[in-house]
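Collaborator request, handled under Task 6.
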Amino acid sequence: MAKGLFDCTGKVTLVTGGNGGIGLGFAMGVAKQGGDVAIWARNAEKNAAAKEQLLAAGAGRVETYIVDVSSEQAIIDGYARLMQDFGRIDCVFANSGASPRYNSIFDMPSDHWFEFQKTALHGAFFTLREAARLMKERAEAGEPGGSLVACGSLSLFQGISGKEEYAASKCAVAGVVRCLAAEMGQYNVRANVVAPGMIMTPMMGPADGPAVQYLTGQYAPITPMKRVGYPEDFEGIGAFLCSDASAFITGETIKVDGGYMIRA
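Structure tokens returned to the collaborator:
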């Protein structure tokens, strides 16, 4: 049954890192609008839990795969399995990332820089490239369309002291997305970036833990919405960018930050 403007029925969406946090938020939005969801992540137990949640939310079908996006070959093989199971790909959220571990560029070892980019930059690039290849093939066979989405951050707009490897990966992927928007429009494929603000995810610890309490205390007062964000805040943008409601939106960076970037 159609669910209105943001209906995702019949669409197959891949979310990398989709078994928790912002990725699960994207996936839940698609699931609640009846879409089919594929999850790539490295933790089988979390994958199984996410699958149950997504099916309960209304997904037509959910499959999970153990895929390490730091490997180009693993991504290529992952798409082969996805296409064997679903037969199509309509939307991709390149969401998998890595955690910065240093507070100064002077402390950051060179090997960390290169290792970080394997997932955060190269993994996102190969995930988007292989999806674009499949969408182009389908368009040339007579069925154009698709949506490519990268998860960015506010580091696209402002510096973060000591997080050069993180900001560099996000800025580079945003450049890739704009190029994809220019190149893939002829196939009716759109490409966009979602830039989160301060989002409280399970990786930050329990809601009453010191890290969450500290960050909430720092960011909520200076955010116009007077709160920090949560994974569920990405359900709406997930459904929107998967659905045909966003059919004429491409090359954009959409901030989901409670107004943080426009504060006085």
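The cover message to the collaborator said: "The chain has a mean pLDDT of 96. The two ends are 45 Å apart (CA to CA). Please let us know whether this matches your experimental observations."
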